[in-house]
Design brief:
alpha+beta; 3-stranded mixed beta sheet; 3 helices
Length: about 140
């Protein structure tokens, strides 16, 4: 896997993935940014959310669960001192579908957290990561 990050101006950067996709990252105005994009640490948190959601949906699809929507709400805390690593992350899954089995949802989230989600497992080296979920019929 490859990626490239090019400095634009101030503290703004253009990230380019090996698959050819770009994303603008920037810092807050008090650090010279213009708020043009997500902060790099926000990108890490978003990456974890995307990684775990991908796993959970794939596992539930294989379990023949009829998921029609999935949202992962993430909340994180960072260390007060440098390096300001994530120290706590909570992922709240909101799954919508027809007759979703709570046990299968719980198993899918656990498997993602413990076995499949590379991002969660890496961030878990410094952060306590917790999960919960709500199921909505629809």
């Amino acid at each position: 896997m490859k990626a490239r990050v090019k400095w634009i101006d101030g503290v703004a950067m253009l990230g380019e993935s090996g698959s050819g996709h770009g994303v603008v990252m920037d810092g807050p105005p008090e650090l010279g940014g213009r708020n043009l994009g997500a902060r790099p640490m926000e990108m890490l948190l978003l990456g974890m959310g995307g990684c775990t959601q991908f796993d959970v949906l794939l596992i539930l699809r294989k379990a023949r669960q009829a998921v029609t929507d999935c949202v992962v709400e993430l909340e994180a805390e960072r260390a007060a001192e440098d390096p300001k690593v994530f120290t706590r992350i909570h992922a709240h899954f909101i799954l919508t579908g027809k007759g979703l089995d709570p046990k299968r949802v719980e198993t899918a989230i656990r498997l993602s957290a413990e076995k499949y989600c590379s991002a969660s497992i890496m961030l878990g080296a410094t952060a306590s990561i917790t999960h919960d979920f709500d199921i909505r019929e629809g």
